Amino acid sequence: MRAAFAPILMLAACTPAAPPLYTVEQIVRHCEAVKGKTVRAAGYLATCAGYDCSLYADTSTGTASRIGIGGGAAFDRKAAAFQKSYVIITGRVVDEKHCTGAALDRAAGIEPTDIRAWTPSEGKLAKTQ
What we know:
By secondary structure, the chain is α+β, with helices and mostly antiparallel strands. The protein has one domain (18-120): CATH 2.40.50.200. The chain has helices spanning 2-13, 24-29, 31-34, 73-79; strands spanning 21-23, 38-49, 52-56, 66-68, 85-93, 110-117. The termini are far apart.
């Protein structure tokens, strides 16, 4: 019986840990330190389509507290269900200029691999207006 469970236990032991979770403010403040790393970024997704896809610190959508989100049409389709809500985006921080809100149009501060809804059990993100 023990031998039957051994592969399951080995598989569970090999499951990689989730990337660290950061708020938009934390990534903007420490962009150089997380550049090149895979992170989970928590923030407010207003719209995500065409030339506009950014993750904001809160619903005020100010440019100083945002991160540009890369991706393309496939990511936009997945993100459509999450627009105007708080989300967790997993991806690699690729460009310091664009993860500090300095870029115009759609520029990748984070190149996304996944998006999901944020849940209150993950802690307080930011003020909600």
